[in-house]
Amino acid sequence: EKGGWSSFMAKEISEEPEAVAKTLLGRLVDHKVRLPELDSLGEGTLENIDRIVIVACGTAAYAGMLGKYAIEKWSRIPVDVELAHEFRYRDPILTERTLVVSISQSGETMDTLLAVRHALEQGAKTLSICNTQGATIPRDSHAVLYTHAGPEVAVASTKAFVAQITALYLLGLRIGEARGTLSAEQIAENAAELLAIPEKIDEVLVASQSIGQLAHWMTDTQSVLFLGRNVGFPVALEGALKLKELAYIHAEGFAAGELKHGPIALIEPGQVVFVIVPSPRDPNSLHPKVVSNIQEIRARGARVIAIAEKGDAAVLPFADEVIPIPLAGSLFEPLLAVVPLHIFGMELAAAKGLDVDQPRNLAKSVTVE
Ligand code: M6R
User: Fold this and answer.
1) What's the CA-to-centroid distance between 300 and ligand 1, angstroms?
2) What is the pLDDT of residues 155-184, one digit of tens each?
């Protein structure tokens, strides 16, 4: 039931903090990662795998891209992320030391299911990250790590996305723990970051209340671009997908570093560009690079909407709008930065009088190839 909400999507966005909290529940205890459900992968699997392949479609694949950043950083195992429908048909190289991690909210997506079955036939280990108890993909996999976002009704995935990222980060910490690539202190630090996320998303929900107005003046907009770098890149892709599916607007997400390799030619006066700005405290110093990207597009007349850390003064002179997010470690920023983009997609669809929960031509779970 929708409760007092105008749509299931509005309700589900409001449940993003809870989706993260419930997915963490009982899994971070005494600075240790407890995921007994991974035991059914077989003893020694986490220590012995030499490669991870993440397979998923749509929003779940963007969660997978974020999983790659975290798992590689924490466990030093190479991770590839592939769209399940591409993976399945190119005879991928898989061995018994490959862990194939599928991500699916519904657990019924045919493309993802076929990728998992192919991995099983090739002798790989399979782990399903899924939001639906007893669905086909987890039943067919060696192990399942459930996300506990609760039922997601709106076609556009929102709370399941943040829960998937949370589950992938837990997995990354667990593998880092098993392989000794993370110290107890590092696990404790990252666990604290994760545990703080639900409250920070609550703050973002409050700070995002002006997005409805932003959406209102954009009902005639024909095209919106999204730029992000590093972990901001999958967030940009997610923001663009939401606009396509909900508001039927041409939208594209780019890696900000790619701008000068082509996309900057698209910038003309009035072009709306959302930019996901890394923290000025970012250890990779990506912040100045993204700020200079903003200056470049601003100089060509772009209308810049920046999603930036609270108090980031460097962005203010160059952005038409700034949506502030609370301070968090770099890897954790996507869990905050994506929330305004979910709200924006929903608000723009609503402002255009479209069906927010049931966009045209789409089904909640895609059970055909
Ligand atoms: O149920 P799944 O997570 O396997 O679904 C995957 C995609 O079809 C899904 O995320 C789709 O991209 C959403 N409609 C995006 O909001």
Assistant:
1) 35
2) 999 999 999 999 999 999 999 999 999 999
